[in-house]
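User: Quick sanity check before I run a bigger batch. Here is a single chain. Can you write out its predicted 3D structure?
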Amino acid sequence: MPRDRETLRRVFLEELPACSLVRAAWFGGSDATDRTDRWSDVDLYVLVQPGRTEDYCERQECWLERVAPVLRRYRLPEPTAHGARQEFIQFEGLPEEHMLDVCVLESFDPGAWIGVARHGTPQVIHDPESLLLEPAVDRDALTERLQARRATLGTTFPLFLHLAPKAARRGLPIEAQACYHSFVLRPLVELLRLRYCPQRHDYGLRYLEQDLPAEAYAELLALAWPTGIEALPRDCELASELFWRTMAQLERDGIRFPAPPA
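Assistant: Done. Predicted structure follows.
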């Protein structure tokens, strides 16, 4: 029988609800945002009983043996920034894209892991305690923090904008490209996110085709791939124009969040 991401998902759909160590479990990523395609990996989140992470992981290893032998794996050094045990696993005989990205948690802050606007709708595997509910968000506090970030970008963007064209004029294409990405493109993207999708203000360059209006995305796309070192100074000028236009819109309209889900 062919083995693919559905084979991997099926194992957890069968085993997790019956495991007494598990308080809640869900699929996130593309399964939660309705963008699954033939290249999608499997993003799994498992909340276990306190102190039982190792016990759970031993059981998980037994389940994975039913899928295929492990080809390669990497576990993030701990403590991780998000507090979960996170591991990436690829399997023999499965497409490399069908990697398992699994987070095992012992404590659970819904605001960090759940929320339709940021993470999509979790595909619930097991939740007998009804833990996986839409969390309340303190919009006032978040707005204040994002306004402060907007002000910071208004200072740092013009301060460092010159670094990319300076490197280009010195004939240093690799350095120029690195500076363009770090000091021009990324802060521009962050500001566009504050304007159009503040709930995912920290998502960087991912999902922009979904998060930005088509016109804004097209304008950004034209700036994402400088055609050469000669064109880079002009691209910086165009990026600066878009940055300050967006800044003016934010100063006029403020931070606006989408309507909460019904």
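The beta strands are 22-27, 42-48, 70-75, 85-91, 100-105, 123-126.

User: Great, the batch can go ahead then.
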